[in-house]
């Protein structure tokens, strides 16, 4: 199983992103029992993957990643599909990746467009970064946040010059209130 950009592979000795045979065998295998829109219920023979773990549907032309959202009981989890669910059928095999969905971060990602699982969709080739982070992380501590007022640079010269926005402020209110101010 190849570790795709959005999912960490199990730790291996090869360093190539492939799971070692022992690690591959240790990953939980499940089967699709229901598809309801973007929700997919998956039943496992033994052991449930933790909530927020990534699962991958086996035997598809295009890659379909599922994220565990809820434990339903009877060795079944409810997942959210990260792409369209046209094609998966009951009984289709699903593998637990053993990790949450991760996306690349760093200077190499600036100006790039990627989907929710970290795959580039801007047709500019793969994104090569040294670091990936889970798509779900803890909020920063209040003491780690900045209390200084900063200007949000939009990149639109007219807005940045005539009506600069503050970071963290409600920008939408200006759009609503501006016509009222102009009339009075």
From TrEMBL:
Gene Ontology cellular-component terms listed: mitochondrion; proton-transporting ATP synthase complex
Annotated EC: 7.1.2.2
Intracellular or extracellular location(s): Membrane
Domain ATPase F1/V1/A1 complex alpha/beta subunit N-terminal residues, every copy: 32-98
EC main group: translocase
UniProt similarity note: Belongs to the ATPase alpha/beta chains family.
Protein name in the entry: H(+)-transporting two-sector ATPase
UniProt keyword Nuclease present: no
Superkingdom per UniProt: Eukaryota
Gene Ontology molecular function terms on file: ATP binding; proton-transporting ATP synthase activity, rotational mechanism
Organism: Mastacembelus armatus
Alphabetized UniProt keyword annotations: ATP synthesis, ATP-binding, CF(1), Hydrogen ion transport, Ion transport, Membrane, Nucleotide-binding, Translocase, Transport
UniProt entry tagged with the keyword Repeat: no
Pfam families: ATP-synt_ab_N (PF02874)
GO biological process: proton motive force-driven mitochondrial ATP synthesis
